[in-house]
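Tokens in:
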């Protein structure tokens, strides 16, 4: 009997067996390697619908291998592969895939990622046997028709190439300019221009056939504001891109330009891709007739700096007067920059970057997304105010706007405390606020001292006492407790719903809870936690919170660059029905208490004009609540609940100016005030092309106004009145 016959394996079999054993070892090794370096799709998730057609497709790898190449393909269902650009960041294990042109709306696409490594022939055989690509399919969003209302003064042209185009409406509403319509780029035509004095082009390009009509409209007095325009549009201003771009830079306003002179004292960070612009060496723009657009050089309204003090000799914002109108070009996408400034770096989502568990919103900023030297400046708010000033100064028609806070106030403290099962701290504070409130004070006018109490599930307050304070205008809600642990998004949603339900069962007379702050401010993703809150009925989030103390280094300020609520926006440009309201006044951030509160209120009410509604955190572990009360009274600033601010912002955003008409020095407009905005104030430019404001009448009655200067521009201020108004200007041209 041959050797090994008893085992039933021949000598040839032994060799094959050894080879197969080696195959198995290699296979196990290769599978393990693939397991540790598998493709993890970040955006979009497989079978996602409603994906923005210009959204960057981002893919995260668990690991990279030296010498590894990444390939990508993207095709429409039934079509061919589309041209792509691929950016690989091996440090962050992130691959960003961008279609070279916007995708079609309401179409299905498949994205495949592959990875290839130079290997031996043997390993290549195994590699060939294993799947080498991972794919995800998604459907793009249908093109929105837009919003059209009677007599709007401005138009936002929403391009499918700009993911954050829809966010411009929120920016303009936040600035009180509730007089803009919006339209999709493919539905925009020259006939629309007759109805508007200002157009914000949230697209890098326009069909060439529309450009001549647009230029004629500008010549006749229109104001066109362009966001990251392409070279064809930049040629109208004798500018061009130099072929390079930055992903972060600073803006410095030009001191001599009236519209932005109030912003010249400090730089502002810009996030997102930024074009470097330069003059065209041979300006050949001839869009109309035989002449150029203008023989003037464009004005640098604000310049770019690579560092806070390293000028690049390139404009961040340029302006050119053409005939009676104005062309303005931003070298960056303002909406994207605002979103990244407020919500942090989306590429850092899901990371515990400060090394202090759990994951919190501050991890989206730590350590250098926010320049800590500028933490004392509300950079997002300042960007928006600068944009508003440019918009107001560039248009021939004087535009009315609603002020940020009711009663023309410059600041408010949103008094929110977290009660972690104290014996009676909340009731004691509320009793003090009632005692300090004026007799027969008006809740709607924020004349009563009020607050919000977020109670942990273990906090015991008698229902009768809660009802008594609730009936006086105080707000109660559950302080959702994850025991300071991050949870998967689905588990977080379940916990939020359960604790809210249990709280409502204890206090059934309370209305639906709409404001929320997690204990330990745990956070998922870039906006995942906000999306979970929306599903649970929360509409006012306060989780963005100045932290950690060592990073802040005793400096009060604005981690998110803002002291005003605005809706969250997702990475694909979806505006969520929930406001982000950062918590700036924190008792445990190791900023000296009196110094921190006083500094923020002084900057809001003083010469800096850093207006805002400042959200607080206190937990009755010290005297911070008393300090907040004392400083609010010292600065004559109202103390309000989060719910009061939510009602106001909703009402202000739903209010609108309509039926605007500007002829012979007379501006006619109507004011439509929504519930909650009864105490709104209107600001009108004090000067226009026809001269200075002479008088205002609403509903047939003369309206007294107060003159003041806001961020460098003189304005007339008066209470809003629902109905029809006229503002008369005269006495010569504007100075």
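Residues out:
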């Amino acid at each position: 009997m041959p050797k090994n016959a008893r085992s039933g394996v021949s000598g040839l079999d032994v060799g094959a067996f050894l080879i197969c054993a080696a195959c198995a070892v290699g296979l196990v090794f290769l599978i393990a390697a693939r397991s540790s370096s598998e493709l993890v799709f970040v955006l979009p998730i497989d079978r996602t619908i409603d994906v923005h057609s210009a959204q960057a497709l981002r893919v995260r790898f668990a690991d990279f291998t030296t010498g590894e190449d990444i390939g990508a393909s993207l095709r429409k269902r039934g079509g061919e592969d589309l041209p792509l650009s691929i950016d690989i960041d091996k440090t962050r294990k992130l691959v960003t895939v961008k279609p070279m042109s916007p995708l079609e709306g309401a179409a299905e696409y498949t994205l495949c990622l592959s990875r290839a490594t130079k290997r031996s022939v043997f390993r290549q055989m195994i590699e060939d046997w294993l799947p080498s690509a991972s794919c995800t399919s998604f459907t793009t969003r249908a093109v929105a028709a837009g919003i059209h209302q009677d007599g709007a003064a401005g138009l936002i042209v929403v391009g499918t190439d700009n993911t954050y185009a829809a966010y411009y409406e929120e920016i303009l509403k936040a600035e009180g300019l509730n007089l803009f319509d919006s339209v999709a780029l493919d539905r925009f035509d020259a006939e629309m221009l007759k109805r508007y004095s200002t157009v914000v082009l949230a697209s890098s390009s326009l069909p060439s056939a529309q450009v001549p009509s647009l230029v004629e409209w500008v010549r006749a007095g229109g104001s066109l504001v362009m966001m990251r325009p392409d070279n064809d549009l930049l040629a109208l201003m004798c500018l061009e891109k130099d072929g390079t771009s930055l992903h972060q830079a600073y803006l410095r306003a030009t001191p001599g330009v009236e519209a932005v002179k109030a912003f010249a004292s400090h730089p502002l960070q810009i996030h997102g891709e930024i074009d470097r612009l330069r003059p065209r060496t041979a300006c050949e723009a001839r869009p109309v007739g035989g002449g150029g657009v203008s023989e003037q050089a464009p004005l640098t309204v604000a310049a770019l700096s690579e560092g806070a003090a390293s000028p690049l000799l390139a404009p961040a914002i340029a302006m050119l007067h053409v005939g009676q109108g104005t062309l303005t070009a931003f070298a960056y996408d303002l909406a994207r920059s605002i979103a990244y400034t407020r919500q942090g770096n989306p590429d850092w989502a899901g990371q515990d970057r400060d090394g202090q568990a759990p994951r919190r919103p501050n991890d989206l900023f730590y350590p250098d997304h926010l320049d800590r030297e500028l933490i004392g400046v509300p950079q997002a708010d300042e960007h928006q105010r600068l944009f508003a000033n440019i918009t107001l100064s560039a248009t021939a028609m004087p535009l009315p706007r609603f002020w940020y806070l009711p009663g023309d106030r410059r600041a408010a403290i949103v008094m929110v405390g977290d009660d972690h099962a104290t014996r009676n701290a909340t009731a004691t504070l509320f009793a003090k606020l009632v005692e300090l409130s004026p007799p027969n004070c008006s809740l709607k006018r924020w004349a009563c001292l009020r607050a919000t109490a977020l109670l942990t599930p273990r906090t015991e307050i008698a229902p009768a006492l809660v009802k008594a304070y609730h009936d006086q205008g105080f707000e109660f809600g559950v302080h959702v407790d994850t025991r300071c642990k991050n949870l998967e998004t689905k588990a977080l949603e379940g916990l939020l719903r359960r604790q809210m339900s249990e709280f409502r069962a204890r206090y059934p007379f309370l209305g639906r809870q709409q404001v929320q702050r997690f204990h330990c401010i745990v956070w998922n993703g870039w906006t995942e936690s906000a999306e979970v809150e929306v599903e649970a009925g929360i509409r006012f989030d306060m989780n963005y919170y100045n932290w950690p103390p060592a990073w802040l280094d005793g400096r009060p300020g604005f981690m998110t660059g803002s002291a005003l609520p605005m809706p969250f926006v997702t990475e694909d440009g979806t505006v969520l029905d929930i406001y982000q309201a950062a918590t700036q006044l924190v008792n445990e951030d190791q900023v000296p208490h009196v110094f921190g509160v006083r500094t923020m209120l002084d900057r809001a009410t003083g010469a800096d004009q850093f207006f805002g509604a400042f959200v607080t955190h206190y937990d009755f572990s010290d005297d911070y609540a008393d300090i907040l009360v004392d400083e609010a009274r010292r600065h004559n600033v109202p103390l309000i609940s989060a719910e009061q601010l939510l009602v106001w912002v909703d009402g202000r955003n739903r209010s609108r100016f309509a039926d605007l008409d500007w002829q012979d020095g007379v501006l006619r407009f109507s004011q439509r005030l929504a519930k909650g905005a009864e105490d709104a104030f209107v600001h009108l430019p004090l000067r226009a092309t026809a001269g200075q404001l002479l008088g205002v009448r609403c509903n047939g009655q003369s309206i007294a106004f107060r003159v003041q200067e806001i961020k460098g521009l003189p304005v007339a201020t008066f209470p809003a009145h629902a109905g029809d108004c006229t503002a008369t200007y005269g006495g010569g041209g504007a100075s």
